[in-house]
Amino acid sequence: MSTSPEDSNRELTTTTGSTLQDHRLRVVEVELLGGGRTVRLFPSLNFVRGDITTGKTTFVRLLRSLLGTVPDNLPPEVGHVRALRGTLQLRRNNWHVYRPLVTTRTAPVEVARSKTDDNVIASDNEAIRLPATGPESSYSRFLLDQLALPAVSVPEARTDPTSRLSAVSMTDWLGYCIVTGDELDSDVFGHKDRFKNQKRRWIFELAYGYYDVELAALIASRRGVELRLDSLDREAEVIRRFLEGTPFSDETAIRTAIAQRQQALKSMEQQQRTVAAETVDAAEVGDLRSSVLDHRKIQDTLQADEARLTTQLTDLQELKRQLISQSARLTRAIVADEWLVDFDFVVCPRCGNGIEPNRAESGHCYLCLKPENSTTSREALLSEQDRVISQVSETDRVMELRQSALDKTKANVEANKVTLHRLAAELDQRTAAFVSDRAAVIRAQARDIATVSADIEKFHEYAQLVARHSDQDQIRRKLEEEREELSHAIEGREANQHEADQNLEALEKRILEYLERLHIPQLADLLTVRINRTTFLPEVSGRSFDELSSQGLKTLVNVAHALAHHTVAIDRGLPIPGLLVLDGISANAGHEGFDRDRIGDMYRLLIEVGNEYEEHLQLIAVDNDIPAAVIDEVRDSIILELSQQDRLIRLASRTPDDKLGV
């Protein structure tokens, strides 16, 4: 079955004429690079059939790999497939995809706008390379954006809006699009797996309007305010109990007590200073104390002079060393000049021929015939030598004077140290005698001062607690006002959830309609369908999905349930990708309530839904065989037939080109 481009781009509209959001997802083509297989799909209804162990379920898993993450449990023969190369229609645009078949989360996926797309622009021809998964700039995020699906993060703990957030990925949305053979007769979009079930419920709330991102933020904010109010209550109770039984229940009383204690402290400190002054004046220790201070100053001066003289001696010793070194160099120069100045050559040092001194003009060398260089005279060197020796002698005399002064200063330091020690010992003795007489008074003063200081510090702590308690009242009033504002905002947004209830009611009616068309066995006097408002799982005639009597009945309910989600989403513009894959439709043939007639009913329902929603829903049914009653109707929609002789992975075939086909 095919549609014209004009039909496929037609906008969805409601009965009132308003435009609905388009979330079409079509797999146009998929190629198994290294597996020797290319499959082209129809826009609406597609069938895959083949014997068991020929690769039908593997094909379903590879479709999921092309659109989401690569599963870990692929069969060994898939190891020959290097990558998947496919063409996808995402809403109105066609994209080429090159997906390496590896489970690494950062595996690079290449995508490029199809050159045959009427909407393509020049800048879109270049391929984009993205990591497979991630909250930002990833292949998963790219698909969400292109399909206009909510790219949000939800709390990991449903009962705690403030818990850590987990991103909703494209793989999570595919849970509503791909139903594998091991789930079709046992699970509702993987509800028995704890992690999958949590994401399934979040996807349901996002798709049907029960989870509003802004509403969730408001609820989380209100919860944070409530936690802060609880914390204030606990802290206020602690302060109340701490102050309970004390006379300081208000800040004024505490401030008065602090002022009284501070005044008493000043008086005690004044008395302590008076006793200290009496200690200085008593026992004729005043003059003795002044003498000790004078000798300490003298000691400081003498020690400074000692350090200065020591430094000067060190500098003079370095100067003497330098002068002696200079004198030695002058001596070597004088000796060298004596040996070389009158040396004459009578033969050429090179060829051995005789040389006449008069062969050159005066002032020129008779060897090289060039003007002679002027050199320092021996008399000048001797004069400089005498001057340096004189400086060495003068330095020695200065060093003797400095050493003498240093020795004298050291002696004075030691003498003054003895005197200072004697005076200090005498002062300590006289002072100790006085303090001994007044010890009881001094101890009492110190004890009273410590007690009053501790009281002042304690009263300051009381004042801080009372002030904080007062501040808490103001903070509480502000938090209560904020909580009230958030509650009003939440009530306003919750009032908008009437449309979400209508969406859910439409889903229940559609499931009931499809079950009636499938002629399921009567479970009660009246066939009813209800979606549980807590688990979001279907209940048929009062029975939950897990309580249904047979696998065949569960398969019928699962098919009706999955189809209803997609058709209601298309009718009402809900964000569910327009792709549904059903694997193993007739796997439970012959089971109770699931005979060949029911299989035929399922195929006829798929055909009718495919014809009705051919513009916006791509259906892929995978089965061992197709009932003879409908084979003529679907023959042209079979996209892949597998057998033991022609399995999905053709190991003998290899495709040399391994690049993105743009």
- Characterize the biggest β-sheet: 6 strands, antiparallel
* Tally of helical segments: 15
Rg, Å, rounded: 51 Å
Proportion of strand residues: 5-15%
Termini separation comes to: 26 Å
Number of strands: 16
Mean pLDDT: 81
Helix vs. strand class: alpha/beta
Helix content: 40-55%
Low-confidence stretches: 1-18, 653-659
Inertia-based shape: flat
Q: Identify the strand order in the major beta sheet.
A: 2-1-4-5-6-7
Give a written overview of the molecule.
With 662 residues, the protein is of the alpha/beta class. It is built from 15 helices and 16 strands. The protein has helices at 5-8, 56-67, 139-146, 170-174, 181-184, 194-208, 213-243, 251-281, 286-340, 378-437, 439-494, 498-518, 551-572, 596-612, 631-634, and strands at 25-33, 37-40, 45-50, 83-90, 93-100, 108-113, 128-131, 153-155, 165-167, 178-179, 529-531, 538-540, 543-544, 579-583, 618-623, 638-642. The strands form 4 sheets. Strands 2-1-4-5-6-7 form a 6-stranded antiparallel beta sheet, with helices on one face. The chain has a 5-stranded parallel beta sheet with strand order 10-14-15-3-16, with helices on both faces. β5 (93-100) and β6 (108-113) form a beta hairpin. The model is unreliable at 1-18 and 653-659 (pLDDT under 50).
Quick description:
Helix 8 runs antiparallel to helix 11, helix 9 packs antiparallel against helix 10 and helix 12 packs across helix 13.
